[in-house]
Amino acid sequence: MSIKTEELVLNMGPQHPSTHGVLRLELQIEGEVVRKVTPHIGYLHRCFEKHAEAMTYPQVIPYTDRMDYLASMYNNFGYVLGVEKLMGIEVPERVQYIRVIMGELQRIASHMVALGTYGLDIGAFTPFLYLFRDREKILSLFEMTCGARLLYNYMWVGGLSHDIHPDFVRLTKEFITYFRPNIKEINDLLTFNKIFVDRTANIGILPVDTAINYGITGPNLRASGFKFDLRKNDPYSIYDRFDFDIPVGEGMVGTVGDCWDRFYVRVLEMEQSLKIVEQAIDQIPEGDVQSAIPKRIKPPVGTIYQRVENPRGELGYFIISDGTLNPFRVKVRAPSFVNMMILDELSRGHLVADIVAILGSIDIVLGEIDR
Amino acid sequence: MKSLLDSEFSDSNIVIARADDLLNWARLSSLWQLSFGLACCAIEMMATSASHYDFDRFGVMPRPTPRQSDVIIISGTVTLKMALRIKRLYEQMPDPKYIISMGSCANCGGPYWEHGYHVLKGVDRVIPVDVYVPGCPPRPEALLEGLLKLQEKIRNESLRTKKSA
User: Fold this and answer.
1) CB spacing of B66 vs A15 below 8 angstroms
2) Which of A28, A113, A251, A254 is the most exposed place for a label (fewest CB within 10 A)?
């Protein structure tokens, strides 16, 4: 005997506590089982490309801040690297080191939000509070350096907006010794918690070939077991000088590439970022951070594609210069946008409650998707 | 202004209070917030709710549905596509309801004021705002100050000059 069933269309978002911003998902469900997920974007389209056309090169930097607002430093990083390459500017060593330190601290802060809110999605409130407590310490380091907590406009073409504070090195070292044991605390609180493992292991398995076909990058790709990190595979700035590992998903509690792996890769990445900061902080050379900033930023006619390893994956800037003060076009390859495309593939056949777990594990930022 | 309700009493007693004072005190002390983040400011709003700044001590608790919330914090850029949804969310909230506009984008369009063809130039064009918090993004302290200002506003409300629905 068979019961006649009918597919139901269910809207999730744009106001939903677990969509990480203003994303609308159109779910086609059969009972509790999801058959199809259609993401609807554009609720936060802030006209980045239009602004880039109308602004001069340095004026674009604050708008890059506001794309991936959890990793503003890294968005600045990619853009200024691109413009510097276009102009052929050689950046002082001191600037390079400070940029790497800021970038890696930002990666830790960004992963903290990702892990904390993922706990919230699954139903664990406490880890969120613990992670935000530690995140404030990173934010205060940034604030001490450039005065802003979230959107920094710190990296400029050819240099930095401010030199680091005399206490910065000491306080960063203190932070490293403070935070390293806390990673274990996160693991005890959340990562190996039985309920958490049951909610995330073997859910939303992303096979490595599918991930590559979809162009997935960043922790999501590495969780599927593929060792690809632009800091190693296409080193930019001075990343080739540091010794660090690229953690990949191993399927410790489930299958390789499940939600739990995507979570755990981020935990391991925080450790590696600490390692990079630790190496870099002792080697900062003396110098002037603004000595290489050109008086007029007017790159010659040309195009460039500069990619960096953002906390979410490959962030690419395609900059076209027509030889004027304004860029002709700045096209952004946003990792969140590409990573979100996998959502339908991952969600099919799972329960409605798992959609939240899958969406959280991909770690999207809507500011970057809609731009 | 110190009201009768702020005084302490040593033993059980009958308190005579104005209905306005009692209602306002109850309303301003447990403003439940719609957990609704739009953009960058939402991260600062989350930071305000989290351990370091602890929104909870002012009675502000995030609720996932508009039907249970008293205050909506518009935390981020309001796009034209989102504006209709925000209006709808606001209409779903029960009276009395309050709005805090957080950050430059929600106040006036912020950095997207000039070239943002898809950005609403201020959320007050679709819903009535009670408190504007400036900043891009505002610090958590600024949001807390905005909340205190809203509480002050509620404290001075009266049943006779009730906010129109």
Assistant:
1) yes
2) A28
